[in-house]
Amino acid sequence: MKKVLSCIAALLSVLSLQSRNLVEEALRINTLTDGREEAIAKFNADYLTVRRGSSLLDTPHILYPDSTFYGSNTLNDNILPLAFGFVPDSVRADVIGNVIKTIRSRKYRADVCPEVEPYVLKTLYSIGHNEMAYFICEEHPEMQTADCIAKQYRDEWMEQCVAGITTVDKRRIKIRIRPDFTIQELDTLSMKVSTPYGEVTSSFEKDLMHAEWHFSIPKGVKAEIYTPTVHRRNVRKRCLARRLRVEDGWSVWKVRGGEHHFSIDFDMPEHVVERQFVYKNEDFPQCHSNTLCFAENGDLLCAFYGGTGEHYPDTKVRIARKNKGTDNWSRPVVVAEPDKDNFCLDNPVLFRIPEPGEPVRLWYKIRPAWKLQEGEIDLCSIAFWEGRLKTSTDNGYTWSEMQTLPDGYLGPIKDKPVYHKGRLICPSSREPKYEHLSRTIHFEWSDDKGQSWNCSEPEGVDLSIPTKKRVPGRVGENVDNPANPNDYYGVYRPISAIQPTIFIHKDGSLQALCRTGNSKMGETWSRDNGQTWSRLTLTDMPQNNSGIDGTTLPDGRFVLVYNKFESLPGTSGSPRTPLMVAVSEDGRNWTDVVTLEDDAIKEYSYPAVICDEQGYVHIAYTWRRYRSKYVKLKL
User: Fold this and answer.
1) CA–CA distance from 130 to each of 12, 133, 599, 601 (Å)?
2) H helix count then E strand count, the chain
3) Is 608 helix (H, G, I), strand (E, B) or coil?
């Protein structure tokens, strides 16, 4: 053991020395004027490692780049080549990917050596990941410790990269202000910056659609101001300003010294009509598993569970309301709590049968809370879920007492039911106590609006290599390890599927797509209104072992919201990003039409999607686990 530890220590010492040499050489080259190109070429020859094809994904992803990096692939080694422009264009995306992956894996603690520290935040801004820089600062406000970025560098970054206040000398223009309105978490900003020409102030308040921006320029000084819109009509100003040009999606304005105020409507992506957070700052730190439903009076209800976190006994189902014809959501209110000590709540589902006088139904699940054990069995496992139901006859303002579902029934497990030809059909699933057993989907249906229930499941399940446990080189052995029942590398098992969503086809048939642990979505069909279902097979649609949801539009098309990422073989988890909206005519061939989210911070998951009578699509989803985000589309 001592010999092993000695070897590890020696290796770490070599890597540390290599990193030190890399940093010193990068800093030296950056000061050169003569022979700079030759020095950069030698630097790349000495320190850049290019290994194409090491990613196991067919489609590149920022969190799984190819093994292309500098030095020993630390943050220290990769930041300076990016900051100084040493990285060849052909591998720049991979080096950026390694930087983002490293920061994310270290829980946003950007611990680097003193020589690299001044460059971290500004480099993230220059490579298009300013929100990652902001997240570093928000997660670690202490700023003065060796674990993160010192306050002086944070202040410089805030002034230049967030407030966007810089001095220039261009055709008598002395000051430029280009705030970063794209940082979603940043709702307000107020900055005062001293320049050689006098003090510049800039402050704004914003949401996801609009900003009110006030700034002041020293008297006698001309400035360029950037607004994030290409349309003049989206900017209302209380000052003299002349638009000079459009640049990379921004309008550039010329203003003179004095006080100025701009009201800005942000350009929306195609199809997006509205987007906002359902809530921002509440007394519970996390939320998850959104569900949407229209009440009979036209109000839009959004429910989710919120608390300390998943599995914790303080999780409660909460509902926010968007009154018909209004723009804002009410504060979320608690409508369901655990009815047993040390239990937690999961996966609420809202639904209302679209007939006059029908109540809003709220299904949810209850299970033992975090870290309850019985021998080697984790009692907080989803295998121990119990189904619960509440109803509301006044459009979701008050709720009935809790009802316990019959034994063996859980209700809709994540996605909403459908009501077709007088039958209420709930897409559901079960998860086993032991990891090596497959998860299975089923459908609970009622012909009397929930007074009595029946259950059906696919007539069979195709076999597939379980992606979660697959390891390159062992695929195809098809043998169990008798010493460890969880070791089933390469063994073909039934498709592991949960959380189906149902589409209604024009011929009356039902199609269910579902989440799997097998890298592709599962699919089953019913030709008798949910009473029997075909064999479960895998489709061509990618799956990252996370929730999906879909709905049928009035014109017969289908909408699917999902994470466009295929599980990486050999890993137990996959990124829950990007989050996409796709449309299909037949339920089999899908076309992506909107990207809802696409970055490496946290996750964007568990979407809920419904459609109104006018054809507007309404979507809510988990945003980084501590907010719920709402988007309205017109496809």
Assistant:
1) 31, 5, 11, 11
2) 7, 40
3) strand
